[in-house]
Amino acid sequence: MTDRPALSCALAPTADVVAQARLAEQLGYRRVWLTDAPALYGDLWVAMGRIATGTEHIGIGAGVTVPGLRHPMVTASAIASVEELAPGRLIMGLGTGYSALNTLGRKASTWAQTAAYYRQVRALLDGQTVDIDGRACRMMQLPELGARRPIKVPLWLAVSGPKGIATARELAVPGVIWTSTPTEHGDWPDSALLRFGTVLDPGEDHTHPRVLEAAGPGYTAMVVHAAWQHSPTAVDRLPGGTKWREQVEQEQPTERRHTIVHEGHIVRLVDRDRDVATAAGPTLLDIGWTGNAASIRDRFTQAADSGVTEVIYIPAGPDIARELTAFASAASFSA
């Protein structure tokens, strides 16, 4: 029988993140992963440091950091600092930054750039001297001025598509993070699946305001925002999509639209996103893991059969505590 995946959660770095992490710890979540998107939320590493000192044992993950946002030395130093605060509890995930960089008007990093960044950070943590932008770099903190090298924090990779999978294999990463159910088990010991959605109470459906606010951010991020990033007119094929696009175009000129499209990305609905999520109708419930408690448990079993070892739940809406509690209970991980 395939082992059941562990349950973790992903939170946005906000002023409330420590209280949310404490609740997740009480509910039995394995890890708290923190989103890295400086234009959308607070600082990833500040939040991780707060969680490290504000919780007792829950794991902490950077999910995921992005090449191009920080020099590899800055990332390595941040990892070392959090590891000092919470020894053995930290994992760093690295990704291409499709949304995080788009909010800055930039394209995602290439897989070659991502692989190079991964190797540089790993080498720095291992105590090596590495060439970065034509200059030698080494973590040179003396004892009591920084963590002793080597720093054995695991570095995972967020993967998608053949190139991402190939890069993960090339780097021999210890863990991968997926945004959709993997089609192959791969060569890595840990395989985490990001999932959003909400546990429905009896009688609830897509017409209920609570469901809209909790399931809507995942729908708009993964369907509407993703379609717009591919091609702005692609959203016209979605229910309410033309109206949504026209609102974006009215609010900002072409060169500034990236500064508003992702507002609240995956965790909150702004008015134009609320309208397009409402227009989705019952389809709102088909994106992500939205359903009753029994269906959530079934999905854990299906994920395990796909080689998933950890499900990372992304709670959304105004009541994160309710979402964390309901999902843990549905997955039979409640304290």
UniProtKB/TrEMBL annotation:
- Membrane-spanning intervals of the chain: none
SUPFAM superfamilies found in the cross-reference section:
Bacterial luciferase-like
Q: What keywords were assigned to this record? A: Oxidoreductase
Q: Does the keyword Isomerase apply?
A: no
Q: Which residues form a coiled coil?
A: none
Residues in Luciferase-like domain copies? 13-183
Q: Which domain of life is it from?
A: Bacteria
**Pfam families given in the database record:** Bac_luciferase
Is Zinc set as a keyword in this record? no
PANTHER family of this UniProt entry? 5,10-METHYLENETETRAHYDROMETHANOPTERIN REDUCTASE, PTHR43244
Please identify the protein, giving its name as recorded: LLM class flavin-dependent oxidoreductase
Q: Which organism is it from?
A: Catenulispora pinistramenti
Q: What is the lineage of its organism?
A: Bacteria, Bacillati, Actinomycetota, Actinomycetes, Catenulisporales
